[in-house]
Amino acid sequence: MDLLTAEHVTKRYAAHTALDDVSVAIPRGSVYGLLGPNGAGKTTLIRIINRITAPDSGRVLFDGHEIAPEDIYRIGYLPEERGLYKKMKVGEQALFFARLKGLSRRDAMQRLRQWFEKFGITGWWDKRVEELSKGMAQKVQFIVTVLHEPELLIFDEPFSGFDPINANLLKEEILALRDRGATVIFSTHNMSSVEEICDHITLINKSRNILSGRVDEIRRRHGANLFEVDYRGDEEALRRALDGCCEILERPADEATAYRTLRIHIPDDGAVRRVVAAANEAVELRSFREIIPSMNDIFIRAVNGEL
Questions:
Q1: Over 11-46, what HEC string results?
Q2: What residues contact residue 52 under an 8 Å CB cut-off, 6+ apart?
Q3: pTM exceeds 0.70, yes or no
Q4: Which of 74, 97, 90 lies closest to 144, judged by CA?
Q5: DSSP H or E run through 118
Q6: Alpha helices, H only, 204-294
Q7: For residue 158, which of 31, 60, 287, 307 has the smallest C-alpha distance?
Q8: Is the pLDDT of residue 259 over 70?
């Protein structure tokens, strides 16, 4: 069952259409990537889900009913524009936000101590926010976003400004939250992160949803039936064996290895088994693998209208 759905959502600002009949369905217990170039409409959709603004038409359903003000307590939102008060002390501010989310002081303090220790920032409890680096401040904001253990978490560019070690720490925590039952909406431009942590994606471009589905299915669906054959033996014998079965595209430059690689195109899915059998008869076959396009490739092709 889907935890959240947006149905035919449209939002206009004067002469600009920010969202044009956009529908998405967020499966419960998944990490859902919300992708798109700058100005595509992602942040507008996130603001509508959070009830910061309202759609001109369409609706958002949360857990089977039209989203209501009280549902906001079941959502955690980390916006791209960070919102910490620079003059407040870190611990004081974290406690303030926790109380706003409905936690008692005792529960808030207990959870905050655990999270501050996990992120290695216990020593910053009495520092002012303005003394923190951008990465440190983001850690604090991440903590106050997840502290009340909401069912739906929305992260807008959460890795911005993080070094690789801390970005990986955050990825692990996002996946751990999903494994504990949270549903995550993850808005980003980082396509490698999408492949690492997202189960499903929607790509919004020019205010419209142009691509949705499971990440693995989208990558496979938009492949070009390209394969690489690793082998040892007579290349000419292999080429003769494959003649008429497929198109031989190129042979990558030789490396210091006993095996060579041949890149081929098989236009007919039904011919794959025949190609493997023919290659295996002609040479010593080490591996036969499909070349699956990256999400970055698919993103560029989709935005350029090439899919």
A1: EEECCEEEEEEEEEEEECCCEEEEECCCCCCHHHHH
A2: none
A3: yes
A4: 97
A5: helix 105-118
A6: 215-221, 235-242, 272-282
A7: 31
A8: yes
CA–CA separation, 215 vs 61, rounded Å? 23
Question: Which tokens is 247 given?
Answer: 């198109």
- Look at residues 281, 274, 224 and name the one whose alpha carbon lies nearest to residue 245: 274
pLDDT in tens, 291-301: 999 999 999 98
Candidate from 37-41, 80-84, 201-205, 247-251 with smallest mean pLDDT: 80-84
**Contact between residue 63 and residue 3 where contact means Cβ atoms under 8 Å apart:** yes
Please name the residues in contact with 247: beta carbons below 8 A apart, sequence gap of 6 or more.
264, 265, 266, 267
Angle at 214 between CA 211 and CA 215, to 5 degrees: 85
Does residue 223 contact residue 212 with C-beta atoms inside 8 Å?
no
Q: Does residue 128 contact residue 89 with C-beta atoms inside 8 Å?
A: yes
Residue 166 · residue 91 · CB < 8 Å = no
- CATH numbers and ranges of domains, the chain: 2-220 (3.40.50.300), 224-291 (3.30.70.1150)
Residue-wise pLDDT tens digits, 116-175:
999 989 999 999 989 988 888 889 999 999 999 999 999 998 887 778 888 888 899 999
Nearest to 283 by CA among 255, 249, 252, 258: 258
CA distance 205 to 195: 19
Q: Which helix (H) or strand (E) holds 164?
A: helix 164-179
The residue count for the chain: 307
